[in-house]
Design a protein that fits this description.
alpha/beta, six-stranded mixed β-sheet, five-stranded mixed β-sheet, binds 1-O-pyrophosphono-5-O-phosphono-alpha-D-ribofuranose
């Protein structure tokens, strides 16, 4: 493996600020990260570390390929994409859940016809209903999945619910919980062996500073 800085991939967006807060809490200088503009690779002064910002699924790809040693990514993306890496710790932030939601008052599990479920997460959805022994048609949607049952495309959705506001404002409600979600720390399997000492030190600092009461 080339002799480069330890590279940490952070998921852009919702969990980015919490991840940067965590790095700051450890004692890293996050000035560059807070003033990133449109830059995608940020330095951490006085440390042998650099931070990369990427979309969730790409965080996994970069870590899997070993071009990033560590990654911070939601359990939702891990569950959907899987992959070959170590999932080291639950960081305790970015908490939400995967839920099956329906139009208010609908009894999704009633009746015999095959139901249609719209989702951004077909793999998570497939496994959820497979475990229930329930046959469903899954339709992949790219965003604002809540629209699908409203316009009659599906009987329900499997999606992320955080505050529940999106469901509520669209006349939908949670019918069943699929799985809890939070941000996770992942590590490349080779980095874990070849840079064991340095990676372990960073993982220890992250774990010491990320417990639930601090978030
Ligand atoms: C997510 C999710 C819900 C919403 C849930 O969407 O898909 O739509 O957030 O949050 P709430 O329970 O706090 O209302 P996101 O904002 O990531 O955008 P998207 O639907 O376009 O993917």
């Amino acid at each position: 493996m080339e002799n480069r800085k330890v590279r940490i991939a952070l998921t852009k967006g919702r969990i980015e600020n919490k991840a940067v807060d965590l790095l700051e809490k450890i004692g890293y200088d996050v000035t560059d990260l807070r003033n990133k503009g449109r830059r995608l690779i940020l330095s951490v002064p006085n440390e042998d570390i650099e931070v990369v910002l990427a979309k969730a699924a790409d965080v996994i790809t970069y870590v899997e390929h070993g071009v990033c040693d560590l990654g911070v990514v939601g359990k939702d993306t891990i569950m959907e994409h899987g992959g070959k890496f170590f999932e080291i710790s639950d960081l305790g932030f970015g908490k939400c859940r995967f839920a099956l939601a329906v139009k208010k008052g609908t009894d999704f599990y009633m009746g015999y016809g095959v139901k249609t479920v719209a989702t951004k997460y077909p793999e998570v959805t497939r496994r959820f209903f497979e475990a229930k022994g329930m046959d469903v048609d899954i339709v992949k949607i790219e965003g604002s999945v809540e629209l699908a049952p409203l316009v009659g495309l599906s009987d329900g959705i499997v999606d992320i619910v955080e505050t529940g506001t999106t469901l509520k404002e669209n006349g939908l409600e949670v019918y069943d919980t699929v799985a809890p979600i939070s941000a996770r720390l992942i590590v490349n399997t080779v980095s874990m062996k070849l840079k064991q000492e340095r990676i372990s030190e960073i993982v220890r600092l992250i774990e010491e500073n990320c417990d639930d009461k601090n978030n």
